[in-house]
Model the fold of this input.
Amino acid sequence: MNLAESLLSALRDHGAREIFGIPGDFALPFFKVIETSNILPLYTLSHEPGVGFAADAAARIRSAPSVAAVTYGAGALNMVNAVASAYAEKAPVVVVSGAPGRAESSRGLLLHHQVKSLDSQHQIYREITCDQARLDDLRTAPEAIARVLHNCVTQSRPVYFEIPRNLVAEPCAAVTRLSADPVDVEAVETCVDEVLERLQRAASPVLMVGVEIRRFGLEQKIELLARRLGIPVVTSFLGRGLLAHSTARVLGTYMGIAGDPELTQLVEQSDALLLLGVILSDTNFGVSSHRLNLRHAIHAEDGAVRLGHHIYPHIPLEAFVDALLARVDRPEATPTPVHAYPRNLMHDDQPITPTDIARAVNDFFAAHGSMPLASDMGDCLFTALDMDNTELVAPGYYATMGYGVPAGLGLQAATGRRPIILVGDGAFQMTGWELGNCRRYGWDPIVLVFNNRSWEMLRVFQPESGFNNLDDWNFAVLAQGLGGIGVRVTTRAELAMALERAASIRGRFVLIEIVLPPNAVSATLARFVAGLTMGRGK
Ligand code: S1T
Ligand code: MG
Done:
């Protein structure tokens, strides 16, 4: 076995099932072993941001590591934003960058793709990954790989490997996976005692779930726990799509003053808010109608549990949930009907609003079964909150554009399921072109482009600025050249017909370019921006 095979086998052993990548001369030897060894399938894309976003989405939807393989310098540094997003939103992406070999690094010349020093890239990736290793010593490489991949899985964060091109094919021992970190059972039980005591004396306990429950594969356990506790469940904004199709009482998504008033009141007046795997970010809580006093919450995230001023460190979320389940054996409450999302789009010649798009998608799901969603940042993400609670991958906290299309491709590569991709015209201009890779791999997403000829989210914050105006790129015409089918719709009847037609077209992507009237925004976005602006005291 050589170094590359040792790394690839360890990646597979830790749950990776695919590699997205773009090679370069520093990475060609590694990519050669990827191709000849067949340990993991390789999907090459067109631009490194897309590689990172696709790996992020694959990692999220499978709750396991996914690999982004790139060349040194121009490749890896081109992917920094996507990996930063994965770090912020706890997606276990494994970055593998080719690197110069020892001899060429010590010739005294500046190497192509080099920045300040040959170590600059490693330093930059230290800031956006939870662990890193340069595999330049064949004796210690197996142990370094085991440590880094162990941290990737247990922390559910991106990690970084640099593999010098002269060592790729050198003999190397196989990697032995590290065993799970020991759990302090007594600490977990003491913590659960205090939590249960809090919940039992509460008049209106509420459970809010966040991304960690998917990252650590806990959705089924949480669904059971919610039913046994008999308390209402909401998701955080970033956690939208969690417990999709579950029978727990998922009432919807907490959005503060931007969301459903009843749900907001339930959360903000709860005297025991149990936050499981929720990131305390401004997009999750910045729009609270009043300062939600999180100090009274019970917050289990990032391997610790906080109750007011009490902190129980080193309590892995799974150990905490298992201990709660072992103690809560109350009869399961009967699940109540979930939130009713807008349906029954009128098929008429009226212009299309974002809420009409949600209605059309919900009607489509009712007729053809639900599909996973990949959404970009923009009003398309806020519109997704009015769509049925199905699996959703989206940058709801780090809020980067460019995520939607590559994420949809990564989702289909990882699961084989056809996704619906939601993307604004501005974000499509960034990474929409990755659709050109669908034909090679047989991917066939349905892509809904919200074409308002504008950076509309920014206009809602600052309406006086003209620079938010975009030209009309007529995306439907471009779809053909990318190997797909494109249709441009301006009325509600055309939208419904285009979706219905897309259902019967498989094997090619279908791009539905939805022309929105000027200044048409979803009600949720309008309230969200009002809430954030008020919160900033403007
Ligand atoms: N660049 C990147 C990579 N990500 C960003 N989030 C931004 C810039 C800032 C930004 C937004 S929302 C937005 C920008 C430029 C406009 C999005 O336009 P479009 O995709 O057409 O969607 P919509 O018209 O629905 O707004 C966030 C606030 O930071
Ligand atoms: Mg737009």
User: Anything to note?
Assistant: The pocket of S1T (ligand 1) is lined by residues 377-380, 399-402, 424-427, 450, 452, 454-458 (CB under 6 Å). The chain has 23 helices and 19 strands. The longest strand covers residues 93-99.
